[in-house]
Specification:
By secondary structure, the protein is mainly α. It is 45% helix and 0% strand. The chain has helices at residues 31-41, 88-101, 114-123, 129-142, 146-152, 154-161, 167-184, 193-197, 204-215, 224-233, 241-251, 257-270.
Length: 300
């Protein structure tokens, strides 16, 4: 045999378990498919841990026997202690001082008769007395009765009072109340609280002012100034104007009730101011219950 002749030998098959290599035509066995079967025969697989996405330190359980700290709760702010009520003698002394300082207090709304007073008070809602007076001087010169106001008309009334807040609504109310006065009260302002409150734009405060200033009745009209003074001083504290009104009527002696409404308004407007009260010149500083009042340099 020449060197160039290449010998071929059949390689012997390795000894196996007696099974032949599967043909291509049969189903191919997959090692991945055999694993579950093998797992059934062997020990069970460990259960998968549920992923929580939280750090391991947050998943640890507290040691038995230890108490968990309770979450802090918000406490409501402590309510200020109630003010000491005024004695009847103190109330009498306060208004005696007001009377000595101003024996005949007057309202600052300019008017010509009960009707123009009614209109001025209706206009004064959410407005200053000075602003109302500036608008009504020209208006009352041409319309000082319900009949003349109706003849003027709503549009012209708006032109006169356009510098006053809510002038469109107020002009409509003035025309409506003028018409009702002519239709139901013969053109006169009624002398009763219920009659005045039945008019468009008139409420309890309006009725009290008109009854007090036009007809001399001992009523207590509570505006923002009276409400502040009654609560701050502790003379007649209340959550609503009606509570303050009834409280002042209970504590104020009848001899002062005719002008008490004006004394308290003027005191709140010029002395017991909302933001910077002038405690140093207050006539009733020593009687006032306000815990934040200033007592330095007060009047004797």
């Amino acid at each position: 045999m020449s060197k160039n002749t290449r010998r071929t030998f059949a390689r012997p098959k390795p000894a196996g378990d007696g099974t032949d290599k599967p043909s291509r035509q049969g189903p191919a066995t997959n090692s991945r498919q055999q694993k579950p079967a093998a797992a059934k025969l062997g020990r069970p697989r460990a259960a998968k841990k549920k992923k929580t996405g939280k750090p391991a330190t947050l998943q640890t359980r507290p040691v038995s026997g230890t108490k968990q700290r309770a979450k802090p709760t918000r406490r409501s702010p402590a309510l200020p202690p109630p003010l000491t009520p005024w004695t009847p003698a103190e109330v009498c002394e306060a208004f005696a001082r007001f009377r000595r300082a101003n024996p005949e207090p007057k309202g600052e709304l300019e008017h010509l008769n009960p009707y123009t007073l009614l209109v001025a008070v209706v206009l004064s809602a959410q407005a200053t007395d000075a602003g109302v007076n500036k608008a009504t001087r020209a208006l009352f010169a041409v319309a000082d009765t319900p009949a003349r106001m109706l003849a003027l008309g709503e549009e012209k009334v708006r032109d006169y009072i356009k510098t006053v807040g809510l002038y469109r609504t107020k002009a409509r109310n003035i025309i409506a109340l003028s018409a009702k006065l002519l239709a139901e009260f013969d053109g006169e302002v009624p002398h009763s609280r219920a009659g005045i409150e039945s008019l468009p734009g008139a409420g309890r405060k309006t009725a009290n002012v008109v009854l007090n200033m036009a007809f001399g009745e001992r009523t207590m009209a509570v505006d923002t100034h009276v409400f502040r003074v009654a609560n701050r001083t502790g003379m007649a504290p209340g959550k609503t104007p009606l509570e303050v009104e009834l409280g002042l009527e209970r504590v104020i002696p009848n001899q002062f009730m005719l002008h008490a409404h004006h004394w308290l308004i003027l005191h709140g407007r010029y002395t017991c101011l909302a933001r910077s009260p002038r405690c140093k010149v207050c006539l009733i500083n020593d009687l006032c219950r306000w815990p934040e009042k200033s007592t330095e340099g007060t009047r004797s």
